[in-house]
Amino acid sequence: MSANSIFAFDVYGTLFNIKSVDTTCEKYFPGRGESIGQLWRQKQIQYSFLRQAMGKYVPFSSVTRDALRFSLAAYHLEWTADTEQTLMEAYNHLSLYEESLYVLQKLKDQSATLIVFSNGSRDMLEPLLEQAGLNDYLDHVISVDDIKQFKPSPASYQLILEAVGAPRHEVTFLSSNGWDISGAKAFGFTTAWINRSEQPIEELQLPPDYQYTTLTPLTQE
Amino acid sequence: MSANSIFAFDVYGTLFNIKSVDTTCEKYFPGRGESIGQLWRQKQIQYSFLRQAMGKYVPFSSVTRDALRFSLAAYHLEWTADTEQTLMEAYNHLSLYEESLYVLQKLKDQSATLIVFSNGSRDMLEPLLEQAGLNDYLDHVISVDDIKQFKPSPASYQLILEAVGAPRHEVTFLSSNGWDISGAKAFGFTTAWINRSEQPIEELQLPPDYQYTTLTPLTQE
């Protein structure tokens, strides 16, 4: 690991466990927590792709709320404004994966440049990073909201280059989302897919350069 | 219904039942046909969105094959090149929904302009329309392949305007896919969502102008 290493981490599903919201969903809709959480995440991602393709950007906090509303309606549930707000706030209190903090610390000790790069708007990202105590380790917090184009658009990944001023292949991009890895690879980053649920590689002819099941191997190279 | 009416129909899921492929999947992978068919369709759509966002277009026949490969791998299945080819060919023999032909005939009798507009590349669309005997009713067969941008990009819907030379709101756009209706609405078409599986409206702030459970009400206005 050289002192010039640059690591760009995706946030949702990569550093933080998005399944944390299932517990809050379960509290309000017993027996349905996991199904709602899963559909919520699926629609959240789909809406970001659709808005990118339509050229109809709105901040990820709005996308996340829209996806929640669709998911609850799809299960024929009724809910109050208070419940909706509590579910939305669950996104500000996601749990870190158990190795995330250690890996960031270790890489920082080795003088790596550490970036988080997310579809999340700052109203979502900032409270999340703050409560998890990550800010001390991060050189850059980059949101696609600065350019109003979601991943996997090339313009979104370009934001990382503008922050670090390095050639693309020197950036190691880490995500648990196979589609995000494909987008980053298409852009020209070195990619490491954190394949936490042992999925097949996306059939997009853009395979990852490295594949791990957790972030831990990053500290062992 | 005026003689100037213009109807643009989506193909997969709107005129043709994409669940037709489940039977072929079931033949090769007993007990898994429906699950494979569902994941195959979901990945097919997702890959078209991703390629649109990444700017990495390939024809829909390639997207469809890639989505099939991912789906079979996700279920830890093994398959031969022959099986893959047979499954792919199932897309050229989808069943029409029971009302599709009658509705097209009826609208044609009323001198409407009838268009099919699809993400499908011509190597998929032409055999499908031919075997179903639809060509006699259609004034235009439009594929996004002509511009190499998938729906729901504005550039894709623009192809319809170029074919008919009419203002956007005079085109009635029909699709069973909520996301396609949102894209068409964002573009400025009059939209009718053929909500066959009684899903909630997509939370994209682009609701359909009309909503039906089949195409039949089009002949009753």
TrEMBL record, chains A, B:
SUPFAM superfamilies, sorted: HAD-like
Record has Phosphoprotein as a keyword: no
InterPro entries according to UniProt: 2-HAD, HAD-like_sf, HAD-SF_hydro_IA, HAD_sf, PGP-like_dom2, S-2-haloacid_dehalogenase
Signal peptide: none
GO molecular function: hydrolase activity, acting on acid halide bonds, in C-halide compounds
UniProt KW keywords: Hydrolase
Cross-referenced Pfam families: Hydrolase
NCBIfam families given in the database record: HAD-SF-IA-v2, HAD_type_II
PANTHER family xrefs: HALOACID DEHALOGENASE, TYPE II (AFU_ORTHOLOGUE AFUA_2G07750)-RELATED (PTHR43316:SF3), HYDROLASE, HALOACID DELAHOGENASE-RELATED (PTHR43316)
Similarity comment text for this entry: Belongs to the HAD-like hydrolase superfamily. S-2-haloalkanoic acid dehalogenase family.
Protein name as it appears in the record: Haloacid dehalogenase
Organism listed in the record: Marinococcus halophilus
UniProt lineage: Bacteria, Bacillati, Bacillota, Bacilli, Bacillales
